[in-house]
Amino acid sequence: MLSEDKSGKLQMHKAAVLYRLILISFALLLVFSSIVMLLALDMYLVPLGFLLSSPILLLSVWFLKQKRALLSVHIITQIFPVIFVVLSVVSKMHNEGTSLIFYIAPRFGILVTILLPFLILGTQNHKQLFYATVPAIFWFFMFDAVHSMAGIKQSISFSQTDYPFVVAGSLIMLILAVLIIYLLQNVNEKYEALIIKQRDDLQQAQQKISDSIAYASRIQASLLMGENILEKQFADYFLIFQPRDVVSGDFFWIRQKDNKTFCMAADCTGHGVPGAFVSMLGIAYLNEIQNMENLSAASVLEILRQKIKISFAQNKEGRYRQDGMDAAFCIIDHQNWQINYSGAHNPIFVVEKQNQLTEYKSVPNTIGFNAKEIAFKDVYIPMQSGDKLFMFSDGYGDQLGGQKNRKITKHQLSQLIHQNSGESFFSLKNILIDYWQKWKAEKSQTDDILVLGVEIK
Fold this sequence. Notes:
Radius of gyration: 38 Å
Distance between the termini: 54 Å
Shape: elongated
Number of domains: 2
CATH superfamily of the largest domain: PPM-type phosphatase domain
CATH architecture of the largest domain: 4-Layer Sandwich
CATH topology of the largest domain: Phosphatase 2c, domain 1
CATH class of the largest domain: Alpha Beta
Number of helices: 11
Strand content: 15-25%
């Protein structure tokens, strides 16, 4: 579909073309009328005024061509009503304008100057329209008052001298109308073809982008495989993974090494395509790091941080890009019944079998460049069968909604988990999703969402 901005520009350009045609036609009409008055009717004052007015019209056309539409409009609406009034008064004082045509023509001319701004400025620019049309409206209603102040009585007659004006004016207006309609038809056909071509080009480009993003989504999904490990190593689990766009800046990474399960829930800079690129970089580095020996959760995050910093290298000014990820990393030792946790801005919740929820806080640093770098810390948590571990990004808690359009918050997420920890993971997952959907209501999704829960067996 053609964008509103581009469509609006085309409409404005078409209006400008029509506006220039009307002004040029009006100037030609004034010149022709002046010649008729001078040669056929032996009139001098009105033709002289018409001839002097034509350059002003052409000046207005020139300003419009220079993309100074507002100045062009003001020339027409502020100068020409005055010209019409003055010419009408002067012509009547010298008995050149007592016929019906001289009664109708000035008023018609002022009405035209009132309507022209709507053509070029559109109906949405209320302030500009107000300032452009007020002078012309003022002179339209003051027309008779000015004649009264000048001591001119409005005596109207229809004599034989009106016939040449009526016939010539009618023919000229008919010719101009046919010419304008013909030119506008060509302009419309030209721009309609341009609009259709641009629409088709945009649709093709949009389809290519959509296809590419859909393919990237399949690639990302293949990299996030790991649910088979969750099924094998834990009594139960659930996963909420909901990208805000087609692809996600959140990701989970799960690998098995000997009797340990490595789990990571991460939130990369941005979302959509940029976030997905960072997530794939993180996954590639984690696949490399897992092969190292004597790893702890904190050492994994430290190594990952150094690799991310090298990838987003310093720029010429010596400043690092603010790209990276927040993450919670856990090494679950099934033999020694222990969780080794380390976090970068991302905490975890552990619900013990006795239904006590504990939040283990993270280091206030990101995996990437930090103005003040703090070493990641290892936390060792004893576990027993039936304990539940929850890892998550900030997407769920940051969702805006509710009656006051506020965030759900991490605290509310912990309350929902704690209050429903006795439920099966299948039920708990549905409870969290239902609460999020009701909170969000008709609003859009704020961020990518990732919540992972596992039960120790």
